[in-house]
Amino acid sequence: MSVTIFIADDHAVVRLGLQALIDAEPDLQLIGQAADGREALVQVQQLRPQVLVLDLVLPGMHGLEVLRRVPRISPETRVIVLSMHANEAYVLDALRGGAVGYVLKGSDTTELVRAIRQVVAGDIYLSPPLSMQAVMDYAERAGGVPADAYDTLTRREREVLRFSAESLTSAQIGARLFISARTVETHRANLMHKLGLRNQADVIRYALRRGILPVDK
Asked: Deepest in the core among 8, 24, 49, 207, taking most CB within 10 A?
């Protein structure tokens, strides 16, 4: 089954180029595009694409606001920001807004395809030379406090964290998320490494502190 993709960019030339790139991949399918932020939201809600490729500078509604609203109207849509800005401040804003990918417009044409496949698999993708460590270091410098490691978790890792904190087995989590138990265990290992958690008790305590579980859980 093809991965469904929607493009939101106000430059027709960019949209045409991305369309040609996607059409050349048999496992990817472009199902819509928009040049306006508000129109993009309307169509994303109707079409429910698996991936939204989103420019941040859009007429009608800024891309960051579109990004923040997507989880409410199409929770399964993963957002890749396509931007000309290569500094950590923009990347941090995008990640905090809910993006799981950040691709530079000057990147090699095949990079967007790699990003799409990676975020569909449940990972975060950042264009080189950007890195998660550089973004975390920037957040710490800019805020004067340690960056929140939770921001580095992918959407899938956050889902696995929540279900793990409820003491579901890998098989049970896999059944709910339609992935294999082995994939669940990989996500669980990754999220525990990122958050510095060592065991199930740590997972539960962390979930309580974050408000992922109610206090009386």
From this structure: 8
Q: What is the CATH number of domain 153-210?
A: 1.10.10.10
Kind and range of the H or E run holding 179: none
pTM: 0.68
Q: Which residue has the tokens 């007429």?
A: 59
Using DSSP bridges, classify how beta strands 51-55 and 3-8 pair: parallel, antiparallel or unpaired.
parallel
Task: Evaluate whether the domain defined by 3-140 bears CATH number 3.50.50.60.
Answer: no
What pLDDT digit, counting tens, does each position of 3-48 carry? 999 999 999 999 999 999 999 999 999 999 999 999 999 999 999 9
Q: Which whole-number Å values give the CA distances from 31 to 8, 34, 47, 80, 82, in the listed order? A: 12, 11, 8, 16, 18
Segment 81-112, tens digit of pLDDT: 999 888 877 888 888 888 889 999 888 878 99
Per-domain boundaries in the chain: 3-140, 153-210
Q: Is the pLDDT of residue 145 over 50?
A: no
Query: How far apart, in whole angstroms, are the C-alpha atoms of residue 111 and residue 97?
Result: 22
Residue 84: Cβ-neighbour burial (10 angstroms; 0-12, 13-18, 19+): exposed
Residue 214, C-beta contacts closer than 8 angstroms, at least 6 positions apart: none
